[in-house]
Amino acid sequence: MKKLVVFDLDGTLAESKLAPDAEMVSLLNVLIGCTKVAIISGGDWPQFEEQVLSLPLLPEVLENLILLPTCGTKFYIYNDKWEKLYSEDLEKVEKEKIITALKTAVTLLGFAPEITWGETIEDRGSQITYSALGQSAPLSAKSLWDPDFNKRREMQQVLSELIPEFSVRAGGSTSIDVTKAGIDKAYGVRKLSRVTEIAESEMIFVGDAIFPGGNDYPVAEMGVVTIKVKNPYDTKRVIEGIIACL
């Protein structure tokens, strides 16, 4: 059995921007009590506070849990309290260039929606994220915006021409994540390996976006054992299988 299980958050452990349900929490408590677990997401630390730290996770298992916001460009461990080991933030001029490019791409493609729920562009320090319908859009609206992934592919194509010096990945059901070149979830997993001294070959990665263009796909490309799930229900069954092996 592997020594570290890495999970994506939205679409894998929970529905977009929602906390994992009671069954998932129960399974995570058992799993984290048995082995090291990391959660990596394009979301920033406030999203982790809402979706993960609000959960009734057992205090005695928290030292086995590692949190990696913004694709691993931020790294948190638990040592009586949550501590940030590092944060690799974008420079101000880089942020301005990315934001301008995102606005240009939306205009060129005609993707500006009539209704939004909150800001569509969020500065997450080490990552700029575009959410087509806004940060607080309901799941019912987000699931209809780009079900075939075509809009996000078009956005990626335009952005790759406007800002080729940055990495552009599809995040959640309506989002695009932009980071410094070479920074994606594979980068985060490599950093995780170095900090924990657990080899990449000793990890399993579980995510819902393990397909070309998806922000989980770089982890598969680097050779880590990956398990693709469709939703949190699938993830629960995977966790049950891992617990049985442990």
Class based on secondary structure composition and strand pairing: alpha/beta
Count of discrete domains? 2
Q: Cα-atom Rg, whole angstroms?
A: 17 Å
Known CATH architecture of the largest domain: 3-Layer(aba) Sandwich
The total count of helices amounts to 8
| Biggest sheet overview | 7 strands, mixed
The CATH topology of the largest domain is Rossmann fold
Please report which band the strand proportion falls in: under 5%, 5-15%, 15-25%, 25-35%, 35-45% or over 45%. Answer: 15-25%
Q: How many β strands by DSSP?
A: 11
Strand order of the largest sheet: 5-4-3-2-1-10-11
Query: Which stretches are poorly predicted, pLDDT < 50 over at least 5 residues?
Result: none
CATH class type of the largest domain: Alpha Beta
First and last CA, distance = 7 Å
The percentage helix is: 25-40%
Question: What is the global morphology?
Answer: globular
SSE series = EHEHEEEHEEHHEEHEHEH
Arithmetic mean of pLDDT: 93
Full CATH superfamily name of the largest domain:
HAD superfamily/HAD-like
Give a quick set of tags describing it.
246 residues, alpha/beta, Rossmann fold, Hypothetical Protein, Haloacid Dehalogenase-like Hydrolase, Chain: A, domain 2, four-stranded antiparallel beta sheet
Description:
There is one protein chain. The chain has 246 residues and is of the alpha/beta class. It folds into two domains: 4-88 and 183-245, Rossmann fold, CATH 3.40.50.1000; 92-180, Hypothetical Protein, Haloacid Dehalogenase-like Hydrolase, Chain: A, domain 2. It is 37% helix and 21% strand. The protein is built from eight helices and eleven strands. The strands form two sheets. It has a seven-stranded mixed β-sheet with strand order 5-4-3-2-1-10-11, sandwiched between helices. A four-stranded antiparallel β-sheet has the order 6-7-9-8, with helices on one face. The protein is globular, with a radius of gyration of 17 Å. The model has no long low-confidence stretch (mean pLDDT 93).
